[in-house]
Amino acid sequence: MARTGKPVRDVCAAPFPAGFEGDDYASPKVDPNARKIAVRTATARAEGGTMTVAQVRDYAPFIADEPDNLGGSNLGPTPLKTLLVSLVSCENAMIHGIAKAMRFAYTAVEFECAGEIDIRGSEGVRGIRPYFQQVELGIVIYSDETADRLAKLRKNVELRCPVMNLLKDANVAVRAD
């Protein structure tokens, strides 16, 4: 994909911005008063050691594993790294859908993501959580849209991204650079 337009950083950051109302809100395409529940499924099996082979719908099996130095066979990304992939993938899906609804023109989006953990948590030290302490998220969107339209896109992505909101609800500090 050609990268045209000016690169703009910081499309999404936590915490959710105050004063989110009126023209900032991109209306949903569903009845907000009628519950619409969807179920997502995955199956998996342990393949020895730390390796897990997962299956989602009819896609090729996906392997998550730990590196050799943590007792794994290093045949796939770690579970926490798959969470980072889930975050940037979800952000991308939200940007795509919301930009389409807003008629927001862009030519490319690039992501960088890193999570910081205190490994004492997964070693069982009380009071130390075994998941991310913070996540750094960098998003560059290539667009010639105005700063106001970019801000509207950003606010709507923050509101709607399920993975971002799961992290925020777990008190993970998510920062954009």
Number of helices: 3
CATH superfamily of the domain at 6-16 and 78-176: K homology (KH) domain
Strand content is 15-25%
Describe the sheet with the most strands: 4 strands, mixed
Total count of strands? 7
Question: What is the CATH topology descriptor of the domain at 6-16 and 78-176?
Answer: GMP Synthetase, Chain A, domain 3
> What is the CATH domain class of the domain at 6-16 and 78-176?
Alpha Beta
Portion in helices: 25-40%
| Average of per-residue pLDDT values | 88
Pattern of helices and strands: EEEEHEEHHE
> Rg, please?
19 Å
Q: Pick out the low-confidence regions.
A: 9-20
What is the name of the CATH architecture of the domain at 6-16 and 78-176? 2-Layer Sandwich
Overall structural class, as computed from helix and strand content, comes to alpha+beta
Span between N and C termini? 24 Å
Write down the overall geometry.
globular
Could you characterize what this model shows?
This protein is α+β, with helices and mostly antiparallel strands and 177 residues long. It has a domain at 6-16 and 78-176: GMP Synthetase, Chain A, domain 3, CATH 3.30.300.20. The chain is built from three helices and seven strands, in the order E-E-E-E-H-E-E-H-H-E. It has helices at 79-102, 147-160, 162-169, and strands at 6-9, 43-46, 52-55, 62-64, 108-116, 134-143, 173-176. The strands form two sheets. Strands 1, 5, 6 and 7 form a four-stranded mixed β-sheet that branches. Strands 2-3-4 form a three-stranded antiparallel β-sheet, with no helix packed on it. Strand 3 and strand 4 form a beta hairpin. Helix 1 packs across helix 2 (147-160). The longest helix has 24 residues, at 79-102. The protein starts with 5 loop residues before the first strand and ends with a strand. Residues 9-20 have low confidence and may be disordered.
